[in-house]
Automatic annotation (TrEMBL):
It comes from Kineococcus rhizosphaerae. This is Dephospho-CoA kinase. It comes from the Bacteria.
Amino acid sequence: MPGVDELAARLAHVRWLGGGSGAGKSSVAAELARRYDVDVCSTDDSMAEHAARLDADAAPLLHRFLAMSLDERWVLRAPQAMLETFHWFAGEGFDLVVQDLLARPADRVVVVEGFRLLPALVRPLASGADAVWLLPTPAFRRAAFRARGSEFTIAGRTSDPERALENLLVRDAAFTRRLAAEAGSRGLVVDGTSSLAQLTDRVARRFALVR
């Protein structure tokens, strides 16, 4: 892998859209693509493929997670333990995200989006105008999951769906607070008071897509 300075230069065409689950990252990225003809790279879409490529030395937390039952993952542990040991929240596999970006053509803007884009990992590769984190409030996140019909996509596969869902929501809220602290002025709170169009406007301005 090239050094940080070389990576930053080779990824100068990339805009980084991170944030908490349920914040609308994919929707904003799709709207940016429609408006400005940017390319979109979803890190959610590559999770399974990346997980299959990571061995236990490269991703020990991932392999511990894979060895757990669904109840061990989401019911039997405290949300804080879930937060501290979740592999993607710890940055495992981020080098594969970078490899994917390097493999894309560099002749157009690429918006890469997903919760795996952690501020500490992105910051060395992006200028101040190239990275934004969407920070959903707990109420907005739950409403978004409910609207998608995905509230129980994970929790519903456990022996105690209500407890698993509550654990997931508490964990995700803690993750968003961590992102807010690390992102600083690059964070945008998402609370439902702005429409998708308005939120996209704000992100586009941050990304300097609006001339």
